[in-house]
Structures are given as C-alpha cells and as structure tokens.
Amino acid sequence: MRLLPVFACAVLFLPLVSTLRAQTRTVAMTVDDLPYVVANDTRPTPPMDAKASAANQKLLAGFARHHVPVTGFVVQKHVEDLGLASGTEILRQWTQHGLDLGNHSYAHLDFNDLTIEQFEEQIVRGETAFAPLMAAAGRKPAFFRFPFNHAGDTKEKLDAVATFLAQHGYRLAPCTIETSDWMFNAAYVQMLAHHDEASAARLRANYLAFTSTQIDYFGKLNKQVLGYEPPQIMLIHDNQLNADVIDGLLAVFEKKQYRWVTLSEAESDPIYHAPETVVTKYGPMWGYRWAKERDVKVDGTLESDPPKWVSDYGREEPAPPRRPRALN
Ligand SMILES: [Zn+2]
After folding, report:
1. From the CA of 66, how far away is ligand 1's center (Å)?
2. Could you report the per-residue pLDDT of 113-144, keeping only the tens digit for each?
3. Is residue 91 part of a domain?
4. pTM score, two decimals?
5. In this structure, what CATH number is given to the domain that contains residue 82?
6. Largest CA distance in the chain
7. Which of 216, 224, 231 is nearest to 299 (CA)?
8. Total structural domains in the chain?
9. pLDDT score recorded for residue 41
10. Is residue 60 part of a domain?
11. Domain boundaries, position 304
12. Most buried residue, 35, 51, 117, 284, by most Cβ within 10 Å?
C-alpha cells in the first residue's frame, strides 16, 4: 500500500515528463522591420497608420495567446514614416505586452553600400524611439540585427562594426530559419488590394506549408553542421500576412514540439558566443555561415523556393533567381 502513492505520482507525471523530453527543441521568435512593413503596392491607400496598428494588434494578441516571448527589431525611419506618434505608440504596445525591442538601424540601408562610419551612425540613430521605450519598461536594449543580415562584406567592416556594437552594449541577433515571408507578403497585399480573396486564401495556406518545410530544412541543416540542433532563431517580418496567419504560424512550431524561448535564452547556447568570421556580401542564414566556418559541405540547392505562382504574382517578368545560399 505504501508504494501506491509513489506509483500514482509516477503515472500522474508521466505525460508531463514525456512532454518535456519531447520539447527539447527550442526556438526564439524575432520580428523584423517594426513598426510595420509598408509594401509599395499598398501606397497610397490611407490610412496606413490604422492598418499598421490593426496588424500589430493581431500579432500581439497571437503572441499572447501562445505565450511567445518575442524580440521585435525596429527601423527608426519606419517609425517616422508612419507618423512619429502612431509609430511610437505601436512600439509602446510591444513593450507593454512584455516583449523586447531591438535595433534594426535607422533607415534599413545596406551595409555593403556604406562605410564603417556611415553604418555606425545608422546604429546610433536607430536608437531614437525604441531605446527610451525599453528603458521606460525597465529593460536594456540588448540586440542588433543587420538589415538584410549583411554583417560586413570585408573583414575590416565585419570586425569594426562588431567591436562598435559590443562597445555600445549590443549583441548580434543572428537568425537560423527564414521563409521569404517578405516575398509572400508582397504578393499577398496585391491580392488584398484587388479583393482576390481566393488567391489570398491559397497563398496563406501555401505560406504555412512552406514555413513547415523551412523549419524542417534548417533543423536538419544545423544538425548536420553542428552535430546537434541549436536553439533556433526564427525570422519573420511585421507585415499584413503574418498578422493574418499568426495563430497558424505559431502552431506550425508547436506541432513540431518546439518550445518558445527568449532570444537571450536561445543565445545562451555557446554557438552564439563565437565571434562572426564569415565575410560575405550576402545575408545567408547562420547554418550556412557555420558550415563555411567548419568547412562542412552543404548543398544549398536542397533548400526549397517559395511557390513560383507566388514569386511571379503581379510581375510582368518572372522573378529573378534567388541569391546563392550555401557559402562553400
Ligand atoms: Zn529588415
């Protein structure tokens, strides 16, 4: 009889233990280009600030429902373009929801086209709105993400800006999974503008399926390169498409038994402590950079492309071929 409570406890906790064991994979969600991606095709449909605000409400509600600790990366010029008051208010809602904000530079310019000094100015000016909001929420700005993930196309630029970021209290925000969501969104906003709801619904379904494919691809790639699957860092953008599918998007990860962690928690893995060494003019996911550093041969052509009907939508010419992915 004395064994019974122990046995009962074991039975009681067995499902919990197996859930925890299954959820050893973790992922941090990051959202770029706050406060909102204004796709050119939607201009000049007014009022953009109301649209941006509604989209962010959807995103924040989705993150809250799924208990996702997100870091959003702010482009200060987007804040100003939206109207300083409206743009800043959207950012404030992020911090009020307990989410973190990071620096994504002032105007989202390409580091490949700038000098070190010009880029450092972009970093400093990028702090205007988000840093005071983080301070007001009692938190310190901690992360910087390069526009296009272009971290330096010469060794001199790579090293100089890495040093500058460290001196200013920043850690780099890499990313390990992406879905070309900007490409899906560019087509999606045109469909919405044309009231083509059938295509929009098909695109949303295709986007979620593609997200699932990409998660599996990068999970395997990183495991092949590192010998284990590190905490993943997912990159999406603050756009209409993600706002409209946020529950479905988060569910894709949850069905694969990923557990949500903060960006800081993800970066506690030693793989994120090593200095960046890969000099490239492209912005590949970190799995490809780790492969190059370790001289592990990977085949980037195995990575899927978004469906052609999406990339070609609304174009007179077919979309150009995608950038090279694997770096070796
Ligand atoms: Zn960006």
Report:
1. 24
2. 999 999 999 999 999 999 999 999 999 999 99
3. yes
4. 0.91
5. 3.20.20.370
6. 78
7. 224
8. 1
9. 46
10. yes
11. 22-311
12. 35
CA of 102 to the centre of ligand 1 (A): 12
Residue at 6: amino acid letter: V
Each residue of 39-63: pLDDT tens digit? 654 444 557 889 999 999 999 999 9
Q: Which segments of the chain are extended strands (E)?
A: 26-34, 71-74, 100-103, 143-144, 171-172, 232-237, 259-261
Q: What is the secondary structure of 225-280 as a DSSP string?
A: HHSS-PPEEEEEESSHHHHHHHHHHHHHHHHTT-EEE-HHHHTTSGGGTSPP----
CA distance 103 to 33: 10
Distance 106 CA to ligand 1 centre (A): 11
Does 319 map to a domain? Answer: no
**How far away, in angstroms, is 38 Cα from ligand 1 center?**
12
What pLDDT does 257 receive?
A: 96
Nearest by Cα to 276 from 191, 170, 187, 205: 170
Report if residue 14 sits inside a domain: no
Q: 214-271: per-residue pLDDT in tens? A: 999 999 999 999 999 999 999 999 999 999 999 999 999 999 999 999 999 999 999 9
